[in-house]
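Sample entry (106 residues):
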Amino acid sequence: MDASRDGIQKLMTAEKEAQAIVSAAREEKTARLRQAVEEAKGEIAVYRAMREETYSKMLREQTGSKVEAESQLKAEFDAEMAKLKSQIDSSKGKIIGDLVASVTRA
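Predicted structure, serialized as tokens:
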């Protein structure tokens, strides 16, 4: 009976060792998974910052272009209005004279 008892004792010891190995492997796997998650979060933060910077740069360029385009259009509009006003002022006397002559002849 001592032989079977020794065998059972060895099996129980082996089972405890196996459970300890499995438990250690699970803990190691969990630790590696946590580490991978943390590394991924770091990479995501770096990528997000890079993409946000690219977006901000693009937005600044487009906004700057829009402001420049608006100011250029306003300058062109003002120049055209000044040109038209000068043409009106230069032709005003002749047109008034023609109208007065037309009305007085009739």
